[in-house]
Amino acid sequence: MSNNTTIDLVKTPSLILDEERMSNNISGLLSRIEAQSVTFRPHMKTAKCVEVARRVMTSPRGPITVSTLKEAEQFADAGVRDILYAVGIAPNKLDAVLALRAKGVDLSILVDSIAQAEAVAAKARLEGDPIPVLIEIDADGYRGGVPADETETVLAVGRALHEGGAELRGILTYSGATYECREVDEIRAVAERERRAATRSAELLRNAGLPCPIVSVGSTPTALFSRDFTGVTEVRAGVFAFFDLVMAGLGVCSVDDIALSVLATVIGHQHDGRRILVDAGWMAMSRDLGTAGQRVSQGYGVVCDLDGEIIPDLIMSGASQEHGILSLRPDSRRALPDLPIGTLVRILPNHACATAAQHHRYNVVSKGSREVTAVWDRFSGW
Amino acid sequence: MSNNTTIDLVKTPSLILDEERMSNNISGLLSRIEAQSVTFRPHMKTAKCVEVARRVMTSPRGPITVSTLKEAEQFADAGVRDILYAVGIAPNKLDAVLALRAKGVDLSILVDSIAQAEAVAAKARLEGDPIPVLIEIDADGYRGGVPADETETVLAVGRALHEGGAELRGILTYSGATYECREVDEIRAVAERERRAATRSAELLRNAGLPCPIVSVGSTPTALFSRDFTGVTEVRAGVFAFFDLVMAGLGVCSVDDIALSVLATVIGHQHDGRRILVDAGWMAMSRDLGTAGQRVSQGYGVVCDLDGEIIPDLIMSGASQEHGILSLRPDSRRALPDLPIGTLVRILPNHACATAAQHHRYNVVSKGSREVTAVWDRFSGW
């Protein structure tokens, strides 16, 4: 989609994507991963946008990671051929998986239980399609995965897949524990735990005579800071292209790296000038308060001017559906800035995945320019 | 859209709407309001769906309330002709307002400052369209509105509109304070404060020789529980058609009245059977934790079986983007129920407006039946 407009003419609330910042974020991570000689399989759950995917992928055919089969279908329609659906499979999704594979997509899936492995293997035999499967290993008790120390279960899942008619393609770990880290050394420790859980499980399979070509690890924090990729074949990361306040709070990026913001208009002033109301509420920002548990709570987001320069100490401190409340940080000694009705601001989000999901498109700008150079559609739903 | 399917064949996660419960919720509020001889102007920000609007509106032409101009446009396309956009107007939205009015929609807007009133009046004069405007009055310091005791400002806004070329149509209040109530008597007190703020401001305008035909109050809690509508001409309410756990926590409805749920599939078990994973995370439920400050925190939602019967003590205690974690309430003495991989559950949301917004359509069922009788599209964005 093309256009000839400037950011001050975009209707509010809207999503603004700074392409220069995004490009820097992408090249920063890609150069790090290329130096490690591992495959990069970016996670498209944040952007859900074909144009962003084309800038993040190492080839037009992928590989990519997705969080829904809708993403798999949309990216397959755009020509991507190597897709990992990285949420534990439900048996009722196998028909959709097979339909995509029948179109020529190398779609692989995830299991973490014998029950799932048996269901997938049975379907693979029934349909004559050796569905490729990774075994999810749980390195930190965060979410899914066979606990790394349950070696008998790992082997049983591997055998159920390999001997049952599916393709045992490897091991996958994800370390959600990085979200609780307070400094980069803690992220490095999490990354090393993740790597060890993955590589040991891979060894376990191989020692039992089972195949394990892929050892997949990663998240934006661990992809950026882990020091050792020995035994790892593939790294995943998603939010790195946009970054957000949660990532900045972890020390993974600077606030100035954040490429995504929500454009909003000032619509009122309250409480003797202590609050400014804007037309972006939680519907535009999401309800994500991901920095609330970090050193500095950013409320619903950090407020910038139209050019993306941070307005000191001003955050979105409250939100209802279509109203955002801007106020100074509790410890600020500044005066509230003079932002008359109609003033446009840009609000940096806590969590790019959640905020982007509230919108249908990205208005693309470049740092320092008000020109909207492109409008990129994004998709949502399942 | 029609179909011939049953709920167990709907892909997950998906939104399920129990039409029988919804109809009971609607008739409950409508009969109460009709008895008061006031106009009912339902708020469509929760449903954002033409089929739901048709069941909630008192006539095919409205009136309705909306929270975005996108809603106004969509409902106008469906034939609604009396629409109130109940978020303080930004000057950059006036062209879209005028475009809808030029199509024959009686679209009214909201202001709470002299600056807005002057901008609207100037636009009204320039375009020769006396845009109808309500003045928002702040009864409780919750969000927008001229503080009820700032009588000079109320009058100045009224004069700027009436003498400036716009149509001064009346007064509007909204009491967000009900969300902090702990019992019905507190809701009644908030409702009475809201009524007094509205009717006194209306008197103020009328005594100054200014018109004020409409006095609009309401929210689901105050519409259901206020005892006195003297001086009020119009009542608004939105979430009442669906209800949710926040409303149940306030005592405004029973959990058994909640018409909306998210269908999800069990995809795993963790932590020695203390956690169940499902394929509905915060993307399907939203990040809204609105019951966290109430007497009973419901996490991300209350878990029911496929027929909508509550599974005792089971809540969604955690969520990542596409994973929900189900566990027993902290004080439960029960054993975790046996929900094998592939089991379908339905999760009642904290906040219907936020959860519905994450989905593209409603799968309509009726209590006690598994037949999906209709699929209704909903819209989103701005």
Produce the secondary structure layout.
Two copies of one chain form a homodimer.
Chain A: E1 5-6, E2 14-18, H1 19-34, E3 39-40, H2 50-56, E4 64-66, H3 69-77, E5 82-88, H4 94-102, E6 106-111, H5 114-127, E7 132-138, E8 146-147, H6 151-162, E9 167-173, H7 184-207, E10 214-217, H8 220-225, E11 234-235, H9 245-250, E12 260-270, E13 275-278, H10 282-285, E14 301-304, E15 310-319, E16 324-328, E17 344-348, H11 352-356, E18 361-365, E19 371-372, E20 374-377
Parallel strand pairs in A: 2-18, 3-11, 4-5, 5-6, 6-7, 7-8, 7-9, 9-10, 10-11
Antiparallel strand pairs in A: 1-19, 2-12, 12-13, 12-17, 13-16, 14-15, 14-17, 15-16, 18-20
Helix pairs in contact in A: 5-6
Task: Write structural notes for this entry.
Two copies of one chain form a homodimer. Chain A is of the alpha/beta class and 382 residues long. Chain A has two domains: 222 residues, Alpha-Beta Barrel (TIM Barrel), CATH 3.20.20.10; 123 residues, D-serine dehydratase-like domain (Lyase, Ornithine Decarboxylase, Chain A, domain 1), CATH 2.40.37. Helices cover 29% and strands 25% of the residues of chain A. The first copy, chain A, has eleven helices and 20 strands. In chain A, the strands form three sheets. In chain A, strands 3, 4, 5, 6, 7, 8, 9, 10 and 11 form a nine-stranded parallel beta sheet that branches. In chain A, a hairpin with a 4-residue loop joins strand 15 and strand 16. In chain A, helix 5 packs parallel to helix 6. Chain A is elongated and about 70 Å long. The mean pLDDT of chain A is 96.
